[in-house]
Amino acid sequence: MATRKAAAKRPNASKEELLAYYRDMLLIRRFEEKAGQLYGMGLIGGFCHLYIGQEAVVVGLEAAAKEGDSRVTSYRDHGHMLACGMDPKGVMAELTGREGGYSRGKGGSMHMFSEEKKFYGGHGIVAAQVPIGTGLAFANKYKGEDTVSFAYFGDGAANQGQVYEAYNMAALWDLPVIFVIENNQYAMGTSVQRSTHSPSYWERGVAFGIKGREVDGMDVLAVKEAGEEAVAHCRAGKGPYILEVKTYRYRGHSMSDPAKYRTREEVQKMREERDPIEGIKAMLLTGSHASEDELKDVDKEIKSIVNESAKFAQESPEPSLDELWTDIYADELPQESAL
Amino acid sequence: MTIEILMPALSPTMEEGTLAKWVVKEGDTVSSGDVIAEIETDKATMEFEAVDEGVIGKILIEEGTEGVKVNTPIAVMLEEGEDASAADAAPTPAAEAPAETPAEPAKAPAAAKPAFEAPAQSPDVPEGTTFKSQTVREALRDAMAEEMRRSENVFLMGEEVAEYQGAYKISQGLLDEFGAKRVIDTPITEHGFAGLAVGAAFGGLNPIVEFMTFNFAMQAIDQIINSAAKTLYMSGGQMGCPIVFRGPNGAAARVGAQHSQDYAAWYASIPGLKVVQPYSAADAKGLLKSAIRDPNPVIFLENEILYGKTFDVPEIEDFTIPFGKAKICREGTDVTIVSWSIGMTYALEAADALAEMGISAEVIDLRTLRPIDYATVIASVKKTNRCVTVEEGFPVASMSNHLAATIMTEAFDYLDAPVLSCTGKDVPMPYAANLEKLALTTTQEVIDAVRAVTYK
Description:
The complex is a heterodimer of chains A (339) and B (456).
Chain A: H1 2-9, H2 15-40, H3 55-64, E1 70-73, H4 78-83, H5 88-95, E2 119-122, H6 129-142, E3 149-154, H7 161-172, E4 177-183, E5 186-187, E6 190-191, H8 192-195, E7 211-216, H9 220-235, E8 241-246, H10 264-274, H11 276-286, H12 292-315
Parallel strand pairs in A: 1-2, 1-3, 3-4, 4-8, 7-8
Antiparallel strand pairs in A: 5-6
Chain B: E1 3-6, E2 16-22, E3 29-30, E4 35-40, E5 45-49, E6 54-59, E7 65-69, E8 73-78, H1 84-88, E9 131-135, H2 136-150, E10 154-158, H3 174-178, E11 183-185, H4 190-202, E12 206-210, H5 221-229, H6 231-234, E13 244-248, H7 264-268, E14 274-276, H8 281-293, E15 298-302, H9 304-307, E16 310-314, E17 327-330, E18 335-339, H10 343-356, E19 361-365, E20 368-370, H11 374-384, E21 387-390, H12 399-411, E22 420-422, H13 433-439, H14 443-453
Parallel strand pairs in B: 10-11, 10-12, 12-13, 13-15, 14-15, 18-19, 18-21, 21-22
Antiparallel strand pairs in B: 1-8, 2-4, 2-7, 3-6, 4-5, 6-8, 9-16, 14-20, 17-19
Helix pairs in contact in B: 2-8, 4-5, 10-14, 11-12
């Protein structure tokens, strides 16, 4: 509760801003709940990793981003896609493996992309997105743009060697990449305490001369503020930045995870005391920024967006059978002088 | 007792070099560790140090001499108390020590005639084209330089590609022309820089990633396959990965099991990758330029032993060769020999020897392994009714297996004998010279296989 009170005191967040965060986080929460339902109904198959509990991380950081910035993340990616403005219908239809999905049903929950929104996946291999995000920053810098790249990964990925290979090059070449460690405390079933001896992940960047900090990932305003600091650092050409965002996932690692590695009480306590959506709601109400009725209207709007996406995802046809053989190779470029 | 100073082997594949400069003269006293000469290999100019103490009695090979074989006496050193007359008793360069080149069959010297003649007959170039003599190494460099001039988005990264001028000198001169922004030395971090380059390709650039050898690319293979090859499909065609991974592949000479593997079959099994494995300098150039322009990830497998080989390269502005088009390097009627890359050395030597025995072999260089030009192979097998494949990779789950299966399916009724394959042996590469020779395929094995399928 301490966090919530502290956040409530912050005077600089406008009503519009707070309402937007509330709305964006709620969209992710309700979308994920619906995805969980559809999974239970057998409409979504394979692996499905829900983002419930971690909403403040992407919503706060997207608030610090600007047009042209790029992002890449792991397989727990639905929240990132919604937060960067991808269409919930296209995301949900990809979850159901339909033609209307972002990858026309060929990617699934873990593999979705949007060139338009500069969302580069959705990567199914733990930590592989970290060098990729670093490469996106390399491209930004190479082209002389002042855009930055967000490379999101979890506390589990943070123990992979390629993360440190990426840190080394990002620091060496001053690349504008923000390494966002979403520390939700469990790498599948292995807690942070059981997987590393080091007390914090962001401090590992010190060895490479990379600036960083820890931030409360259950507080969207705190995340946004930290994100702004990181973005300013990168845009100023000062090289990479590491943000360790302390967060928590309420659901299992994936839909098939019974989550026996932690107690029900632990999850319940987090939900009751630290929930990011309840936090911002309290802030809106106690600060008299919004009435219960206004918030109910937002809830209704979100519910209808999510229901529409679920409807679309069930009605969209399965991809046509020739889709099996398309998109393996990009169109050939003309080979002018070849005979 | 005089001591002969011999031409040193300064790299695993060096057979000969240029005695660029003598740093000492006759009569000079040298101590162990003193630089006595500068020797130019195909990769670099190296300082050559004295091992023993003594006085330089006689210089046997003048500076500036090219093509000095490894182990040739280049000078005679006198030990304490000896005078110059002792040096005269030393053997002359004509009585050179036998050059030991275990991994390879005897090869023509670097400046010799191209290994297969009459490129003008090839379908890649119009009649009347003029040619220049170039090594595979130079052709690869020219291909990169031309493509980097053509597009600002093309850049080269890898270990030692910039300031060192390339571990195998492929990128020589590129740093000077294009600067450190576009020719980038990486830390030794294959997994990391392969992933970084994939990200840069997603971000709109056209990276060329040099692996010092493809043996080291196993550290990066997740990024190559899971990130580069599959993203176009997984994104429903939205986002491709225009990138070239290139470097030497396969056995060099005497570098042991961890540095001597041919990865052709590994990469060629992956949908989403294109795989190129050129033999000649002209193909290396034309195919690398196509690879850099290709909107897909391309695995470009070079061969260290071929780097120094000279071929005719067409003098055509912007010379490219399309993928999936095999080259009939030699026409024949009795048997089809299918190979690519270094395997072509054995295939062509075998074809020469077979001709003398009255067996006419058609030799096909596949050039690209994904896509494969099945049509050319099948048409040839339908004509000759027999086929031998030649590759350096391991025999199990090999390209040869795939070719044999395809030929069986597509031309079963035309076959007069089973398809035989000459491959590397099913063992990790041994270090010992005699064992290494056994582990690789040879011209003799190709000849034997052809005689078996032609029943001669």
